[in-house]
């Protein structure tokens, strides 16, 4: 049977099918021996179901070899202004369903409300935790599921690709040539009103990388991008990375910016702050709503159309709080002011907007997931969990107890610095070390004064950063007579806990010497069981002798006596005289 087709569309009355014309790229594949039936019936995300005509003719398809029928139940074909335009997102999950997919769900609901165009979700996940298929839930909002593929990059010794590797996978959207224009959206964001107007612009557009809210920032942020798919550009981006990969410090967005400016000589155009901005910069854009005197009307009249991350507590460049209100994790939203605790997101209007989109999507998608149900329960969300309550049960008081909703009842409200609930756990540690840095020498080794190790059970929590790959780096070590010791060390990128210089428990192939902050937790039980958590996840479990080494000094150091010197930074090293619960550890690691 011929693999070519005739007219692009035939008007018919007998059935819903129509003829599909192969693209030039598809024709080349079929002539090179590719299975034309599989090529025809592959998912394209364009709203159609495809079927190859083998023996029986499909009504309306004539003699074509590949036929299609409209299959998008959320939007009739007639209401979409241009079938070649779409939004696109990516939700690659290493395990389970995380904030990445949940964020995409809230965005799908927002787009269904504001836009006339569909959304494509590139993902490797097929089902939600309750068994509901992703395709069914997202499909209710006109979102279409396509598989996500890895994008292989040539690595450079001068630059750690692994940290950004998944982000670089977004480059595959340039291969979606079944569309003329795509608007890429990061999943840690939300649209506040329609951005369909962006499809009408010519050339490529993107958000400004104005992390510190500079209104005229020039670098490109790939949080939102208008682009025209092209396999030539996909190949060109990869080739350009081979040339400049060792010089890139800002991931995929720097590659995209430099390729279009230097190779294509078509620089990416930048959206204004009122069109796209980071959530922490909301309110800084210029407003079009001016009074008779030409001055901006007081109030909030400049919310961006695209809000990238909600913002949050601390060093928001690289922690678990830079998007704290666009997630459904109530624990991270809890904030201690002295002994009182509030939900910080109650004071952010965009938080209520995101929650509304997320919870409506979950309800309409018929999701039955405990964390989602609790977050979307108004009583749980606004009052906090209460001991003995059936709908909002309190598990860990510090992370899920009642909220203070009267600012007047909170001493020094708006004056005293507070901390998120997971970080408040540190107040329970008898020993706390704030920060230090050593340089791989005996002279620069850190001394942790009065860091006496309690008898088991105990928990040691620390953040560390090192880019040195060596056979021995002592993070902290206690030593006594006759070989008595307790040591925490980094060995060829793995973390080791040892006692008496011969009993060791360690992680395997962790590659922690990345030069980025790592969170480690050691738990030592009375029975001798030792657990090592990295980034809040259990990575190693073993056993040492139940009897603890004796005669240990109270001023441990980041070295042995003559070797094993620490080379890097250490912060927030805390010692607890009890076992911190695993769910608390996961939150602390953020």
Short characterization:
The chain has 590 residues and is of the alpha+beta class. It is built from 14 helices and 26 strands. It has 4 domains: 54 residues, no CATH class; 201 residues, Alpha-Beta Complex (Spore Coat Polysaccharide Biosynthesis Protein SpsA, Chain A); 109 residues, no CATH class; 160 residues, Sandwich (Jelly Rolls).
List keywords for this structure.
globular; 590 residues; 26 strands; alpha+beta; six-stranded antiparallel β-sheet; 4 domains
Distance between the termini: 58 Å
Shape assignment: globular
Number of helices: 14
So, CATH architecture of the largest domain?
Alpha-Beta Complex
Q: Based on the structure, what is the oligomeric state of the protein chains?
A: single chain
Radius of gyration: 28 Å
* SS-derived structural category: alpha+beta
Largest β sheet strand count, sense and barrel closure: 7 strands, mixed
Assigned CATH class of the largest domain: Alpha Beta
How many β-strand stretches? Answer: 26
Mean pLDDT score, rounded?
A: 90
Weakly predicted, low-confidence segments: 1-15, 157-161
Helix share bin: 10-25%
**What is the strand content?**
15-25%
Count the domains: 4
The CATH superfamily of the largest domain turns out to be Spore Coat Polysaccharide Biosynthesis Protein SpsA, Chain A
CATH topology of the largest domain: Spore Coat Polysaccharide Biosynthesis Protein SpsA, Chain A
Q: Describe the strand arrangement of the main beta sheet, using strand numbers.
A: 6-5-4-7-10-9-11
């Amino acid at each position: 049977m011929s693999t070519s087709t005739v007219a692009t569309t035939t008007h018919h009355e007998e059935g819903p099918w129509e003829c599909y014309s192969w693209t030039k790229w598809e024709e080349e594949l079929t002539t090179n021996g590719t299975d034309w039936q599989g090529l025809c019936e592959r998912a394209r995300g364009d709203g159609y179901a495809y079927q190859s005509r083998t023996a029986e003719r499909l009504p309306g398809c004539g003699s074509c070899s590949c036929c299609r029928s409209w299959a998008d139940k959320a939007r009739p074909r007639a209401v979409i202004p241009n079938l070649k335009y779409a939004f696109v997102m990516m939700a690659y999950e290493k395990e389970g369903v995380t904030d990445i997919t949940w964020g995409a769900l809230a965005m799908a609901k927002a787009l269904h409300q504001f836009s006339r165009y569909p959304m494509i979700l590139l993902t490797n996940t097929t089902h939600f935790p309750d068994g509901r298929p992703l395709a069914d839930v997202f499909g209710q909002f006109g979102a279409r599921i396509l598989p996500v593929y890895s994008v292989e990059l040539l690595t450079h010794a001068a630059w750690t690709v692994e940290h950004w590797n998944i982000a670089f996978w977004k480059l595959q959207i340039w291969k979606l040539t079944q569309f003329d224009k795509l608007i890429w959206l990061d999943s840690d964001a939300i649209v506040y009103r329609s951005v369909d107007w962006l499809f009408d612009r010519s050339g490529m557009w993107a958000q400004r990388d104005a992390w510190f809210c500079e209104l005229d920032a020039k670098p490109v942020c790939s949080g939102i991008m208008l682009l025209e798919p092209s396999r030539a550009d996909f190949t060109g981006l990869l080739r350009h990375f081979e040339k400049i990969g060792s010089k890139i410090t800002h991931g995929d967005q720097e590659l995209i910016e430099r390729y279009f400016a230097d190779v294509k000589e078509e620089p990416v155009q930048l959206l204004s702050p009122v069109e796209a901005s980071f959530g922490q910069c909301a309110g800084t854009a210029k407003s079009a709503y001016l009074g008779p005197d030409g001055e901006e009307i007081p109030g909030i009249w400049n919310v961006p159309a695209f809000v990238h991350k909600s913002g949050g507590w601390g060093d928001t460049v690289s922690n678990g709080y830079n998007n704290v209100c666009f997630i459904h994790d109530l624990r991270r939203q809890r904030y201690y002011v002295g002994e009182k605790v509030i939900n910080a997101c109650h004071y952010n209007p965009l938080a209520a907007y995101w929650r509304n989109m997320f919870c409506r999507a979950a309800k309409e998608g018929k999701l039955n997931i405990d964390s989602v149900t609790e977050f979307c329960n108004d009583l749980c969300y606004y009052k906090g969990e209460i001991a003995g309550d059936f709908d909002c049960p309190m598990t860990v008081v510090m992370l899920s107890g009642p909220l203070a909703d009267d600012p007047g009842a909170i001493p020094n409200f708006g004056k005293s610095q507070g901390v998120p609930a997971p970080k408040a756990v540190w107040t329970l540690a008898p020993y706390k070390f704030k920060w230090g840095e050593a340089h791989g020498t005996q002279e620069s080794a850190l001394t942790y004064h009065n860091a006496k190790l309690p008898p088991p059970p105990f928990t040691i929590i620390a953040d560390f950063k090192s880019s040195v790959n060596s056979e021995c780096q002592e993070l902290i070590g206690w030593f006594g007579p006759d070989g008595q010791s307790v040591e925490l060390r980094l060995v060829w990128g793995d973390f080791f806990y040892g006692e008496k210089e011969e009993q060791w428990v360690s992680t395997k192939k962790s590659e922690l010497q990345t030069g980025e902050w790592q969170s480690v937790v050691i738990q030592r039980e009375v029975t001798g069981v030792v657990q090592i958590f990295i980034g809040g996840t259990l990575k190693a479990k073993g056993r040492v002798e139940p009897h603890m080494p004796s005669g240990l000094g109270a001023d441990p150091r980041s070295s042995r006596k003559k070797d094993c010197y620490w080379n890097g930074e250490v912060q927030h090293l805390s010692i607890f005289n009890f076992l911190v619960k695993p769910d608390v550890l996961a939150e602390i690691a953020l």
